[in-house]
Amino acid sequence: MSVCEFVQEAKQILHVDNITDVETVAKKYEHLFSVNDKSKGGSFYIQSKVGNGIYFMFVYRYFALLLCCSVCLKSVA
Q1: What is the pLDDT of residues 13-71, one digit of tens each?
Q2: Is 49 in contact with 55 (CB distance < 8 Å)?
Q3: What is the CATH number for 42?
Q4: Angle at the Cα of 27 from the Cα atoms of 12 and 63, rounded to 5 degrees
Q5: Is the pTM of this model over 0.90?
Q6: Buried (b) or exposed (e) across 2-16, using 16+ Cβ within 10 A?
Q7: Total domain count for the chain?
Q8: Which of 31, 36, 60, 65 could form a disulfide with 42 if both were Cys (CB 3.0 to 4.6 A apart)?
Q9: CB-hemisphere CA count at 13 Å for 26?
């Protein structure tokens, strides 16, 4: 599975279109994580998918930022 596929899956899991909208992503995550809490009758499997979804979004954003900074630094050198 490629990084783009992981991000697409994460967007589907969290029901978001724009991964740069951190506030919306955080709200969706908190809601879905809470609703799927096993102690509230939720599904641990779905809760873990929600956790993985937000993890991949932030990892993707982190590496995109590193790549951008790397390209910018090379162009200045």
Answers
A1: 888 888 778 888 889 989 999 999 999 999 999 999 888 888 877 777 777 777 776 65
A2: no
A3: 1.10.287.110
A4: 60
A5: no
A6: eeeebbeebbebbeb
A7: 1
A8: 36
A9: 4
